[in-house]
Amino acid sequence: MLATRVSTIQLQNPTILASGVLGSYGSSIRRVAEKGAAALVTKSLGVEARTGHNNPTVVELEGALINAMGLPNPGYKAFGDEITAAKAGGRPIIGSAYGFSVEEYVEVARGLEGYGVDAVELNLSCPNVADTGTEFGQDPELCSEVVRAVKGAVKIPVFAKLTAEVGDIVEIAKACEEAKADGVTAINTLRAMKIDVRVRTPALGNRTGGLSGPYIKPVAVRCVYEIAQETDLDIIGCGGISTGEDIAEFLMAGAKAVEIGTGVWLRGIGVFKKASEELERFMQDYKYSSIEELVGAAL
Ligand code: DHB
């Protein structure tokens, strides 16, 4: 009843572990797989290792987070064994790639494909590090260059993770579609700030960070809906999802699956199973017999 598919990636249920949460180690990815996530995205990997930004890197709000990790990662070349360990969980692994140039995105995507990932998600939307992420995701021509180059270099499906911080996300999605992306993930975190009023200074080491959690859900739903209306892309919804009804909302807006990140912090590692069970009950109550019937139902 809950099975779905994005591009050629078959999913037992519509929940995917979002990048950046428990995705830095094969062992943690495997554990989330065993707890019910149907597929899992790694922490974003680049060509070189990075230590990330100075602390504090995360600030908690009521029910939401702002983070500026600064893309800490060991570099893709040190991640082969982690992919092998992650795959032991028996679920599709999606490698997240970032780069400071088109060539770097290609190098990381090829490297991850060589380690056996089932798909790559291009991080065209990290809000916290200069010269990568949003620098690409806010420019339709750069998006299409990265997607086209990566598509020409790998055989596995390529998803582009988009930022909502653009004038028109449909223009960006169309650029990815023309460059033959197999799908898009919408959306990444939104740039935000918290001031610690007792010390009159920004709470994060990096001053600004990416806002995630329920506050960004309506923005994400709007983006998914707009992309679904104007393109034929497979869409993975992301932003503020932690319940079965959240998933139903994204599916009805046109997503075929969803990613959960901050929902793990809100409801624990059992969120994938809990939300899937809630979705199943919702479908029974409202007489849906397949995910397909929900996808785009509100369009
Ligand atoms: C980071 C990267 C992201 O893409 C994001 O949405 C939030 C944080 C980071 O590593 O800083």
**CATH overall fold name:** TIM Barrel
Distance between the termini: 22 Å
Count of strand segments: 16
Beta-strand percentage range:
15-25%
| Total of helices | 11
Proportion in helices: 25-40%
Query: Could you give the order of strands across the largest sheet?
Result: 3-4-7-8-9-10-15-16
* Helix/strand/pairing category: alpha/beta
Bound molecules: 3,4-dihydroxybenzoic acid
Elements, N to C (H/E): EEEHEEEHEHEHHEHEEEEEHEHEHHH
Mean pLDDT: 98
Number of domains: 1
Structural overview:
There is one protein chain. With 299 residues, this protein is an alpha/beta fold. It has one domain (4-294): Alpha-Beta Barrel (TIM Barrel), CATH 3.20.20. The protein contains 11 helices and 16 strands. The strands form 4 sheets. The protein has an 8-stranded parallel β-barrel, surrounded by 8 helices. It has a 4-stranded antiparallel sheet with strand order 5-6-14-11, with no helix packed on it. The protein has a two-stranded antiparallel sheet with strand order 1-2. The two termini are 22 Å apart. The mean pLDDT is 98.
